[in-house]
Amino acid sequence: MTHTPHIAFIGAGNMAQAILKGMLAAGYPQDKICASGRTQAKLDLLAAETGILTSTDNLALCSLADVIVLGVKPQMMGPLVQSIAPAVDASKHLIVSVAAGILANSIESWLGQKAPIVRCMPNTPSLVGQGAAGLFATPVVSSVQEQTATTIMQSVGLALWVETEDHIDAVTAVSGSGPAYYFLMMEAMIAGAENLGLSNEVAQKLVLQTALGAAQMATHSHQTPDQLRVAVTSPNGTTEQAINTFKAGGFIKLCSQAMAAAHHRSKELAQLFKD
Prior knowledge:
By secondary structure, the chain is of the alpha/beta class. The protein folds into 2 domains: 7-166, NAD(P)-binding Rossmann-like Domain (Rossmann fold, 3-Layer(aba) Sandwich), CATH 3.40.50.720; 178-270, Orthogonal Bundle (ProC C-terminal domain-like fold). Helix content is 55%, strand content 13%. The protein has 12 helices and 8 strands. The protein has helices at 14-25, 40-50, 58-64, 74-84, 104-111, 143-154, 167-176, 178-195, 200-220, 225-231, 238-248, 251-272, and strands spanning 7-10, 33-36, 53-55, 67-70, 94-97, 117-121, 131-137, 157-161. It has an 8-stranded mixed β-sheet with strand order 3-2-1-4-5-6-7-8, with helices on both faces. Helix 1 packs across helix 6, helix 4 (74-84) runs parallel beside helix 5 and helix 7 (167-176) crosses helix 12 (251-272). The longest helix has 22 residues, at 251-272. It is elongated.
């Protein structure tokens, strides 16, 4: 891949569209991206919005590509990979999977050959360019191919490499499922604010802006989150009372248990979708 790789998105759902639109916004050449899907009307709309080539013919797009991004749902992955196998050349193609719970060796089994595969675990904030993704590469993935995968995922946020495929399950528990944890916290705080007499509109605006501000502070500060928490927790003040209540209710342990449960389920799904 000494040239700009041609990237085919097989499956043009929300996540795939978020990634390819992010790449276009970052300046990736329009004529180097194509996408397939099952519904012609949706593909026509995508083509009109982005100017990229779209098609319902997966094999045709694979034959054009250097990188094949598999963006279909996990339960569809087996039949899809088997169907495109005739068009996959392990000496040419990099396979990038963004499907949760699909092991690299399952993809190889469906392809009928050992191929360079990168597994990615993105998350839904990728839809607004604020994603966080973990990536794992099989041993045959070259350094150039790794850089290509990094370029793809960095177009919609943070992209970090993990050392083992097992770590993808941990990424799933942290950032893959993580946005829902924060949404739940927001829900609870909005409800609590309403119980204190604030309107739903005021409660939502205050809670969402507070979450955004806290995230921005933690991201840009040289201090760790625990240092920031201590800095805003005055002795015998209002914040201390709230923090003490969280701790007394087992908040920290509960978070750890919740992430462990997500991690366990991720491993279960990997076995469920195994070839």
